[in-house]
Amino acid sequence: MKLKGAPLIFIVAVAGALSFAATVAVTALAFSSSAPAHHGAEPHSRAAASPHVQVTEVEYRLILSRGVVKAGAVDLEAIDAGMDPHDLRLRHSGSGPELGAPELTSGKRWDGVIDLKPGAYHLWCSLPEHARLGMHATLRVVR
């Protein structure tokens, strides 16, 4: 690619696009290498409804390891992978008590087992302004 004489805006745009592509490739590789391999006749939909969900907390996003789990006892794992403290709250979309993990500092994790009924659950970080800035997600619980 010849860049000599190219406008500065073009060069910055190309550099930004390459940086974004590299970030996406590294992220995809990290997620694909950490996902458990599923062999045999287990259907994909059943694998997606695992009784474990990991929620990674970063500024300002919640990243769920899966968007669907089976109802009942669910192993919830919260990991603060950001630089700031974060907590995790969840509530059934219909009604019910607020559940969640305590405030974590950077690099810390929390594991717990919670009982979830079928339906949609709203997850969020309750620290000031975090949910408004994007730290929220939805988890679907199926029978």
CATH topology of one domain, which one?
A: Immunoglobulin-like
CATH architecture of one domain: Sandwich
Note the total helix count.
2
Number of strands: 9
Strand content: 35-45%
Q: Can you tell me the CATH superfamily of one domain?
A: Cupredoxins -  blue copper proteins
Mean pLDDT: 76
Write down the CATH class of one domain: Mainly Beta
Q: What's the N-to-C terminus distance?
A: 54 Å
Order of helices and strands: HHEEEEEEEEE
Unreliable spans are 6-49
Return Rg in Å: 19 Å
What composes the largest sheet?
Answer: 5 strands, mixed
- SSE-based structural type: alpha+beta
Strand order of the largest sheet: 3-9-8-5-6
